[in-house]
Specification:
single chain, 328 residues, alpha/beta, seven-stranded mixed sheet, 43% helix
Length: 328
């Protein structure tokens, strides 16, 4: 069996409500049929599909790589507040999973911008990121945005900062899916990587399984964003190339950058999260000394009922009626 040539590290499933329509079982089946050893699930700002994906991938002999396509708060002094940066975060181990949960929790508990749950930039420096791998986000990341605007100094500063926060685990992302200025950004990213001695990795943002699904995907995006398909003014963020490409297709797409393909496989090797399923893990609830957990629960339930009855007398009437009538 020939060694794997590429692993998909970007996948928005149906759990990315606004812009994904990939069913997890279909993605797993596609990867298995293509001989991929692993597959990543990186929904937008959530881990909702993680357990279903993890069990489905393991059942087909695939290594499940867990991650998240995260919104990141714009840097201080950044221009357009409506264009926050993206950062792809992939989990190496259990510590990385807990750290990702912590970062996403901060995003959802903090103030929203245009409804987006953005991770505060300060949060990355306030914890241990050793269990995570960070990918730059290509054209949607702050490094890529700066390169596209011709601001090499800002791009370099952003890349250095992410490399500092994720030592040995930050990669510059390269993508070719028909987007404007794709080749210019790839060239600039490769040059920056050489300048800063950073690794590059080829990724492909999957939004749907087959090329023929593009129109259905566009309809879903329009519903989420409040547009109609025929509106010439609606933003068109996606292309028909964002289907589940095979290893052979990705090899052809990045034939000039074999190292970027190899690094996708290497990143998948570095990600080894193990999850125990099928067992409930309830927290140890503190109880007074000499009282069992069951007795304490009974006491609290009775005390709570007394408080409610004192403030809502009609409940007492209904409760007494229920004692008399089996119909209640």
């Amino acid at each position: 069996m020939s060694p794997p040539a590429f692993v998909h590290l970007r996948l928005h499933s149906e759990y990315s409500i606004a812009d994904g329509m990939v069913r997890l079982d279909e993605a797993v089946a596609q990867a298995a049929a293509d001989g991929m050893p692993a597959l990543a699930l990186t929904d937008l700002a959530n881990l909702f599909g993680m357990v279903k994906f993890y069990s489905g991938a393991r059942s087909r002999g695939l290594k499940p790589v867990i991650g998240c396509d995260a919104w990141v708060e714009p840097a201080a002094g950044a221009g357009d507040r409506d264009r926050p940066a993206r950062l792809l975060l992939l989990v190496k181990n259990r510590g990385g999973y807990l750290r990702l949960c912590e970062l996403l929790t901060q995003a959802y508990l903090g103030p929203r911008s245009r409804g987006r749950a953005e991770i505060p930039r300060a949060a990355f420096a306030a914890g241990d990121n050793a269990g995570l791998i960070a990918l730059s986000g290509a054209a949607l990341g702050d490094v890529g945005q700066a390169l596209l605007m011709g601001n090499a100094a800002s791009a370099e500063a952003a890349a250095r900062e992410w490399a500092r926060l994720f030592p040995g685990s930050f990669y510059l992302e390269l993508q070719r899916y028909g987007q404007p200025q794709a080749e210019a950004l790839v060239a600039a990213s490769v040059a920056l990587a050489a300048q800063l001695n950073l690794p590059v990795v080829a990724t492909h943002p999957i939004q749907f399984i087959d090329k023929d699904d593009f129109k259905a995907h566009e309809a879903r995006v329009c519903i989420a964003e409040g547009y109609v398909l025929a509106d010439p003014r609606r933003p068109k963020q996606f292309t028909e190339e964002q289907y589940f490409k095979s290893q052979a297709e990705m090899q052809a797409l990045f034939a000039d950058l074999p190292e970027a393909l190899e690094n996708s496989v290497e990143i998948a090797r570095r990600c080894n999260l193990s999850i125990e399923l099928g067992k409930n893990r309830l927290p140890q609830f503190p109880v007074p000394e000499g009282v069992t957990l069951d007795d304490y629960l009974t006491q609290q339930a009775e005390a709570g009922l007394e408080r409610r009855l004192a403030h809502e007398p009609h409940l007492l009437y209904r409760w007494r009626c229920s004692l008399r009538s089996p119909a209640w």
